[in-house]
Amino acid sequence: MDTIEAIKERRSINFFEPGVDLPDEKIRELLNLANLSPSSFDLQPWRVIVVKDPERKKTLRRCAMNQQKVEEASIVLIMIADPDGVEKNMDRVLGSWQELGYMKPEMRGAYADMMKSLYGAKDSLTRKIFATKNTGLFAMNLMLAAKGLGLESHPMDGFDEACIKKEFNIPADKIIPMIIAVGHLKKGINLLPRAFRREIDEFVTYNSY
Ligand SMILES: Cc1cc2nc3c(=O)[nH]c(=O)nc-3n(C[C@H](O)[C@H](O)[C@H](O)COP(=O)(O)O)c2cc1C
């Protein structure tokens, strides 16, 4: 499936075929594709919990407004934005840039300073926005990759974040922008046509707000 087709065909699927196993190899393929997402300074400030175990999915469903798809999908991915991504990944990014010739060794310090100053103090709103926007891009890449792999998906933010953090041992400083159900469309379900989309002229202007 090409990119344009994947974008056009992706839909948020409410009904997944229950009891369908997604092999770990396929899950890894999906995650590896999502992992090619762009990110601020290539800092990749995300983590993912793959929820596959039926009992764990039941727990997640309880935290997610009892949404049936959480239990029926083959897996549900808890997308986690990590504000510590700057410190955790900075050295490896800079090392790789140096090794591959993206920058001269003497520029390393300047780049490190820029990364730290651009994305603010560890607990700042700037840092939270940095982590969340990049994890959102990862999530979108994942949903399109799923389509390309013959899978369906559904993003959700209808959940109690504190509940998910408690049940899945996620540290308090992390952010959960969304969870994403992945699997196959339930047999016999026909999707309704795509709903309302704003005309682009309503929100696009050229050269000024
Ligand atoms: C961040 C995010 C959170 C969402 N949360 C939910 C949710 O909790 N439950 C739900 O049924 N749909 C949820 N949706 C799905 C939207 O309703 C859906 O994307 C929208 O209606 C457009 O439909 P489409 O994705 O099929 O194009 C969410 C979508 C996004 C992007």
Task: Write up this protein.
- With 209 residues, the protein is an alpha+beta fold.
- It has one domain (3-85, 121-186): NADH Oxidase, CATH 3.40.109.
- The protein has eight helices and four strands; from the N terminus they run H-H-E-H-H-E-H-H-H-E-H-E.
- A four-stranded antiparallel sheet has the order 1-2-4-3.
- The longest helix has 24 residues, at 125-148.
- It is globular and about 60 Å long.
- The two termini are 36 Å apart.
- The mean pLDDT is 96.
- The chain binds flavin mononucleotide.
- Residues 11-12, 67, 155-158, 178, 194 line the site of flavin mononucleotide (FMN).
Short summary:
This protein is α+β, with helices and mostly antiparallel strands and 209 residues long. The chain has helices spanning 3-9, 24-34, 54-63, 68-72, 85-100, 108-118, 125-148, 161-167, and strands at residues 46-51, 75-81, 152-156, 175-183. 44% of the residues lie in helices and 13% in strands.
Main attributes of the structure:
single chain, 209 residues, alpha+beta, NADH Oxidase, 4-stranded antiparallel beta sheet, 8 helices, globular
CATH architecture, please? Answer: 3-Layer(aba) Sandwich
Unreliable parts: none
Shape: globular
Number of strands: 4
The CATH class is identified as Alpha Beta
User: How much helix is in the residues?
Assistant: 40-55%
Ligands bound, unique: flavin mononucleotide
Number of helices: 8
Oligomeric state as shown: single chain
Q: Would you tell me the structural class of the helices and strands? A: alpha+beta
Biggest sheet: strand arrangement:
1-2-4-3
- At CATH level 3, the topology is NADH Oxidase
- Radius of gyration equals 19 Å
CATH superfamily: NADH Oxidase
Proportion of residues in β-strands:
5-15%
Major β-sheet profile: 4 strands, antiparallel
Beginning-to-end CA distance, first to last residue: 36 Å
The arrangement of helices and strands along the chain is HHEHHEHHHEHE
Task: Provide the domain count.
Answer: 1
